[in-house]
Amino acid sequence: MTAFPTLAECRRRDDLDPLRALRALFDLPAGVTYLDGNSLGALPRAAPARLAAAVTAEWGQGLIRSWNSAGWFDLPQRVGDKIGRLVGAGAGEVVAVDGTSINLYKVLHAALDIAAADAPAQRRVVSERSNFPTDLYIAEGLCRARGLTLQLVDADELPGALDDGVAVLLLTHVNYRTGAMHDMAALTRAAHARGTLVIWDLAHSAGAVPVDLRGADADFAVGCGYKYLNGGPGAPAFVWVHPRHADRFWQPLSGWWGHAAPFAFMPDYRPAAGIARYQCGTQPILSLTALDVGVDTVLAADALGGMAALRRKSLALTDLFIAGVRARLAGHGFEIVTPEPHAQRGSQVSIARAEGAYAIVQALIARGVIGDFRAGVPADGARPAVPDILRFGFTPLYLGHADVWHAVDALAQVMTTGEWRDARFAQRQEVT
Ligand SMILES: Cc1ncc(COP(=O)(O)O)c(C=O)c1O
Questions:
Q1: Same domain, yes or no, for 123 and 271?
Q2: I want to staple 62 with a disulfide (CB 3.0 to 4.6 A). Which of 66, 272, 284, 310 is the partner?
Q3: Structural domain count of the chain
Q4: Residue 174 included in any domain
Q5: Helices H, strands E: what count in the chain?
Q6: Is pLDDT above 80 for 1?
Q7: Which residue in 80, 109, 115, 75 sits closest to 96, CA to CA?
């Protein structure tokens, strides 16, 4: 049996945790162990006052003047620069704007324009079958519109799929379902060797694991603001384009905010230089303000070791959870689907179960341990079914070892009492 420490030992580890003070940056409800920051980050304690000031002072008193006086107009770039520091982008290379799906549309469209110009015979887009569906739907739509082929493969088939016919490789760095993490540098290198451009979706990476876009020589990236960046529900997303590509083509949503001189009100479109052209129209300033506060919570770790320290703690927490599942839930039908090797693991742990996964998550939530459920995919003849999973995100900014201990303990109790079989836990809600 794998050793799982006592609660006292977990508390001792929390006492020694150099990042411990960061938890005070968040307003978490009492009695809740929050393991869903990979879906919606927790509320930063500074957000309500900052938003109140944005509403009452900037909007209420400043009115239209605040576009200049409160710096509303360049907020997408300023927040983008902060996010850029977390993902290995240079200054002026990231904008916080629109949503992840929309940004994905822009960068895939631009990448396909570049590929059509540089390598017109390369007419496939390759992605992973288990990629987040919005990525696949956007790619499917663009491939249909442009007469290209979308090829979906399993992760272990990726090296074989990267032949001379691939225009774009579109991958999510950390898999939303399993928490498996790709080797960004190695895959980007393999794709580039075939003249293939690479787009990385960093939804489950930004603020969660160290990312080095420039170091990996990636081409494009997008990511979410509402997960590990703690930007609030529906927060703006971000987009990065390597400077070697940024000015080559228009992005397809050529709105006025991406114009070189929006307030010249010219009838013709002239794209701004660099990443600024990846904006489209007027941005949600209140949401960007909340995102700014959220990103600051991650940057607050800089003084304590930054992303490297966050990563060390994240791995300690996911290791602990895995050990707890092994030690206390053996015989209950769970399979850990998140990879064991650290280099292949994001900041979440997913466990599969053939029966009752949804109800077990609901029973855990009733005990104050919040994770989530992701439905499996039925077998399709050639391929076996993908199982239902229970998904647990570990945000090292606000979670400690004792939280992990309590989560494992609650799961053990849900299973040993059989309380998850209560009919009320089987009622499927719209958002799972
Ligand atoms: C990998 C990935 N991409 C994109 C999204 C969501 O995109 P959007 O913010 O446009 O809904 C998610 C949401 O969970 C995701 O996991």
A1: yes
A2: 66
A3: 2
A4: yes
A5: 14, 13
A6: no
A7: 80
Same domain, 117 and 192: yes
DSSP 8-class letter at 345:
B
Residue 106 designated active-site: no
Distance of alpha carbon 156 from alpha carbon 415, whole angstroms: 34
- Residue 48 and residue 64: Cα distance in Å, rounded? 22
Residue 172 Cβ inside 6 Å of ligand 1? The answer reads yes
Q: Which position among 36, 201, 292, 388 bears the catalytic label?
A: 201
Q: Whose CA is nearest to atom 14 of ligand 1?
A: 39
CATH code at position 235: 3.40.640.10
Last residue of a domain, one of 248, 266, 300: 300
Query: Do 38 and 121 lie in a common domain?
Result: no
Contact predicate 349/379, CB 8 Å: no
Other beta carbons less than 10 A from residue 55's beta carbon: 12
Predicted local confidence at residue 2, as pLDDT: 60
Residue pLDDT, tens place only, 115-145: 999 999 999 999 999 999 999 999 999 999 9
Q: What pTM does this model have?
A: 0.98
170 with 152, same domain? yes
Domain final residue, candidates 253, 283, 300: 300
Structural domain harbouring 249: 73-300
CB 371 within 8 A of CB 349: no
- Name the residue of 100, 173, 175, 374 whose CB sits within 8 Å of the most ligand 1 atoms, as the mutation to test its pocket: 100
